[in-house]
Amino acid sequence: MLGRQAEEKPDSPASLPVFHDLNLDQIFLALTHGREEYDLGPLLRGPLSDTESIAYRQEVMKDLESPPLRGQVEAFSERMREMRRCLVQGDKLHNEYQKMSWFLDAVDTYCDGVEGLLGGLSKSAPKSRGMQELIRFLGSYTSSAGFVTLVSDTKKLKQRISEVRYRIHIRGLLVSVGKYGGEPDYSAEVEETFRKFQEGEVGEYAVRDRLRRDAPDMNSVEEGIMDMIVRLYPDSFGELATYCRTHVGYLDKNVSRFDKEVQFYLAYLQLIQDMKAAGLDFCYPTVDDRSKSVRATETFDLALALRLVHEGASVVRNDFSLSGRERMLVVSGPNQGGKTTFARAFGQVHYLARLGYPVPGKEAQLFLSDNIFTHFEKEEQIENLRGKLQDELIRIHDQLQRATGRSVMIVNEGFSSTTASDALFLGKEVLRRAIDIGCIGVYVTFVDELSRLGEATVSVVSSVVPDNPTQRTFKMVRKPADGRAYAMAIAEKYELTRRYVKRRLSR
Amino acid sequence: MKVRLMFRDGDFNPEATLPPNAEDLTRDLALDTLLKVMARGDAFLLGVARRALLVGLDGPEEIAYRQRALNDSIEHPEVVRGIYGLSVEAIEGRRKIWPWLSESPESVLRGSVETLDLFFGILKRLRRVADEHGGSFRSEAFARFFGMIETELDDAYLLRIQEHLQELKFPDGQRMSAKLGKGFKGEDYVLRRFPVEKQNWTRRVLRRKPKYSFEVAPQDEGGHRALSEVSDNGISAVAKALRESTDRILSFFTVLRTELGFYVGCLNLREALAQLGEPICFPTASAEGLVLSSRGLYDACLALTLNKGVVSNDLRADGKGLVVITGANQGGKSTFLRSLGLAYAMTHAGMFAPAEQFSVTVSAGLFSHYKREEDPSMRSGKLDEELGRLSAIVDHIRRGCVLLSNESFASTNEREGSEIGGEVIGALLEEGVRVFVVTHLSELALRLRDLYASDALFLRAERQADGQRTFRILEGEPLSTSYGRDLYTQVFEEGKTAEALPIDVSP
Lengths: 507, 507
Description:
The complex is a heterodimer.
Chain A: H1 4-7, H2 17-21, H3 24-32, H4 41-44, H5 51-64, H6 67-92, H7 96-124, H8 129-142, H9 145-162, E1 165-171, E2 174-179, H10 186-193, H11 220-232, H12 234-246, H13 253-277, E3 282-283, E4 286-288, E5 294-299, H14 302-311, E6 318-322, E7 328-332, H15 339-354, E8 359-360, E9 363-367, E10 371-376, H16 385-402, E11 407-412, H17 420-437, E12 440-444, E13 457-465, E14 468-478, H18 484-493, H19 498-505
Parallel strand pairs in A: 4-9, 7-12, 7-13, 10-11, 11-12
Antiparallel strand pairs in A: 1-2, 3-8, 5-6, 5-9, 13-14
Helix pairs in contact in A: 6-7, 6-13, 7-8, 7-9, 7-12, 9-12
Chain B: H1 22-28, H2 31-39, H3 43-54, H4 60-75, H5 77-97, H6 105-133, H7 140-152, H8 155-167, E1 174-180, E2 186-191, H9 198-206, E3 213-215, H10 221-275, E4 284-286, E5 292-297, H11 300-306, E6 313-316, E7 322-327, H12 333-348, E8 357-361, E9 366-370, H13 382-396, E10 402-406, H14 414-430, E11 434-438, H15 442-452, E12 456-463, E13 469-475, H16 484-493
Parallel strand pairs in B: 4-8, 7-11, 7-12, 9-10, 10-11
Antiparallel strand pairs in B: 1-2, 5-6, 5-8, 12-13
């Protein structure tokens, strides 16, 4: 279901700076939340490296976007979860008949899930290779003798058990059990007699059901009663024991694997559903392994959007493009202006595309990178500025060593721990090297001059509302950096302009 | 079973929210004096009487319904007090059984059966009272009540109840049916009544256990718990039904106690007034028009406070929307206004009125606006304070309501007070509010006379030629002087102290 490459099981490390820097780890967390049992982590951390595999997944994803088909698959997943709950429950209990009961329920749920899935998928006529393969498999599996017997044995037994009716007579410490023989309902008689006192408002009474109807295990008396019932209905329970022995290995491994792998898609679809409802777009990117012309419209930082949509806030969308000989988007402008978010969005779409997922945006043309390198300023204080600068240089050097002409490079706020002229010098060096290697990417900086290095760099600044420079739009636009206005805007926001400061001091 | 002794079609709500004017009205009419007499030290009766007096009835029909029931009570005080006693006995008796130790079905059932034993014992006595005295009650309320007791609690029904209460103690053990649910835990437990089998007798005699049975060991504590858990399954439905019935019957007794409590309070008041030789009458209440006439109207609270008969007045204000009372200070104006307010409130409650005869158009709401001696919160000036209260009244008052105004607008000078007062009173009058004004502001009185002469009745506190006050209120145009001079003379020149003067119990 995930294509050939997934079967090769790429050995992906659990944590890389790129996951943290691009906030991909937050997205992973959202995707795996509630699906811990499927262990989706390795799949999410193992991006694809050929366009064919990406296309395979995109096809499956498109099929699953159809609500009826997705509903079928989700219903199946729920049945499988229910089946596992039954098995776990059975394992926890010690009474042999209770174990058998839960096993019977597990198998019943499984059969129901498999048959339902086949029926549902056939009706929705999926187009993807993945889904069509699945239908073919399910067709032959459900008509196999093993499965057919499993279904009929299960149904027969469920029926017989449901017919068991018994009566209990508790007198002092003596409990006797018999087959129920249609004796009249005494509760109803009592209720009828007292009915005239039950007109009017009905209050909810907390008559606690101390009967542990919710506790799955039986107490000693219930077990005693169970033994009597088994003796009253020896044939039914004999059959049940045989059934449990016969069908112990009922679970098909392909069915079970589909159940896991399809979560990779369902998780993402569920995640982006709320985003779409909030008016955000997702698109299937065209992924090219040769052209370094990249472009996306109305894209956004998915990790941030997850939070903002949850809070009911609006999400700013941005466009980006690199064409011809352009390689690096150099982003400058005020703090809190959306620069980092923009850089993250650029990195995220390139990563998500390699998982075969649709990406944030109306449309996207992306480059199939071999690796995404991120260099984000570390938040923690290192003992001194020289140590910090050294650490940064070591890290970025390491990344430039490993980067190739097919890598994406995202650098954020480099070298702020040094003087302006040092920062300009070091920034120039790093950018030039990255461009020489042939990387594409985003470079976020305070230093305006870095946006004017040549035709390979494109200047991007965060825009402001023309009439009110203090109000930032978080919208990133391609235009020359002009620093000043932004500095003033920030100063006004903090009431630190001349006028403000004078007024505040004169109070 | 509905009590319906105060309303034809509903219960009296002792927790009803008091109208917004309740606090002022209580203070201005000295209602606490009246309530204390009605309650005779019983806080419950006090609460009932307070609400009955402050939450008036809607119209002449509701008033007549209650008046007739009150008349029955006055004719059979011992029967009414007796039934009231039964209701108290039921409620108190149940309090001793409650609270049960746990909310388990077993303990709820046991507690319910015990409570029902108590309740049905008392209901049986109530039946006997109905048998004996029901026929001599003529009001719709009591006739219906006794009729209901006779039909709802017929002998056959009471016997059946008794049998059930006996059977629910399970003298021959508890029997139920069930089927196998999830994990083979029993479900759909239903309490059953099994035919008593002859075999059981022989078995019992031979001490032979039934074939499919087991016994919990007497020393097995866990087993005992398990056994009661299983038996709870069977009885939780009846436990719930019986608890509901218990609560309903309790609520019947509670309503009965509440509604009879009102009549008991009225009986208490009537007896107290009779001891003082003061008359009472059932007022004639009209729905329409501007009826208001009375003979021998007196201030019941003043009589109860002084513990003697007090001066009464006659009043003929039919067709008058405005009554203005002027005249000598301490001449009985406030007392008269209060006697009128009390008569209104008692009429609205369906009570008798403190008069020999009282006819009135029922108001849509009674409001009072009295001069306050001080503003305890010290937050606002006097005029602010009183106009604030008046404004709050205007928020709620509407066509058909009655406003009792006692020395309003006196917290500013006569000119301004009269100006504001003239506008407010005039506007209320024109909007269909019936206004009773006590004022020493002669300018206000004269202004009202000039503007509303035909709608208004003018009364004056009588002052004899020698300056003596009779505390009688007679018809008379407002004069431009007050009688402060008389008081001054009395206090300063004749050596009398203020305490020696008749006490005005208004706050």
